[in-house]
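Exercise: predict the structure of this protein bound to heme C.
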Amino acid sequence: MNELKHLVAPSLLGLILIAASAATLSGQQDPPQNLQVLPQDISRSALNRVMIENLRGLGLPRRQNEGCLFCHVGDMEQPSDSWDFASDEKLTKRKARVMLAMVQEINSRLEGLESRVAPGLKVTCYTCHAGRTDPRPLPDILMASYEAGGVDSTITRYRALRRRYFGADAYDFRFTVLPSIANAVAQRGSFEDAVTISELNEEVFPNQPAARAVTVSFVIRQAMSEEGIEAGLGVFEEALTTEPEDVVTWSMLDNLGWGYFRADHQSEAMQIFSKNLETFPDEYVPNESFGDALWFSGEQEQGMAVFESWLERHPDHAMARRRLATMRSRR
Ligand code: HEC
Ligand code: HEC
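Solution:
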């Protein structure tokens, strides 16, 4: 009895599998009518595997063949065996054909490598698409949204992508992405939009002082650019008392100072560095930045004096000692 069961079960399972794969490609004409990249004599199951790989690579739904309609002409109201898989009407199918040929070529070139890290490793649609149809990285998508529809559409887009893809390979949702977008937006002149984008980062990274610090920085930069350095330093001063201690650290003005310095606004930079040093005299970096900025803008003696004064207070600070020695040798 039991033996019979063992004999029957596997073949039943086989039948179910065959039925399932036949159902997936039930629309297939035999033989295919319009293959330009895949071999004409490709088996039904091999064609099936390629098409399933297309779905997986692009993150398209497999259920009821719905994802096939991203490339193929058909209608969910009609059974999929009536769909016109041979048609090249959709641009996405025509693009996918170029992709198929490209992937074949990439893999054949990889086979020419002297040795392989992982011999069987193949590039697939997933390698670039990682489960999304549009392979652009997140910052590119967000900047395109910003240019097309402003800050509201950028925020909407980010939320939608995060809702759908968070935790998948598809997009980089790490901390620095929104601040870099906010920065690009600020460079285009809109600090208000930069603040809005940075506030979204605060929302998705709650309780992270660094996220709050980015927003405060943009508010300071806005004041500096619209009302002058003094006004911006006033905002900074206020933030020192209103924001938690770990939000307003020495790195805030340090970054702003170097931003001005690199943009050839040396006197503004010196004002900022000097305020930072006055606020955080016992942190090394504000000393170093003030000294270096003096040195680089030609005030060599004053620059060295900053390091000397630091070393009087911290005689064991090797890094400062080396820096001062280099300055002395180059004076
Ligand atoms: C990302 C686009 C894309 C998706 C998704 C896709 N296909 Fe295709 N399919 C193609 C391309 C491109 C070809 C033509 C390949 C060639 O020219 O060699 C093709 C060819 C076919 C053919 C052969 C048609 C013929 O007669 O020439 C069948 C059948 C087919 N696909 C079925 C499916 C099914 C079923 C699905 C869903 C499970 C699917 N495809 C999903 C792009 C896609
Ligand atoms: C080497 C990276 C790479 C690989 C591998 C790759 N793609 Fe693409 N794919 C791209 C790029 C880049 C674009 C955007 C092309 C453009 O400018 O329109 C794209 C666009 C597409 C589009 C158009 C999407 C749209 O909305 O218009 C389809 C469809 C597509 N790929 C399917 C595939 C399929 C199917 C495979 C696997 C057979 C594949 N791709 C493999 C990089 C790749």
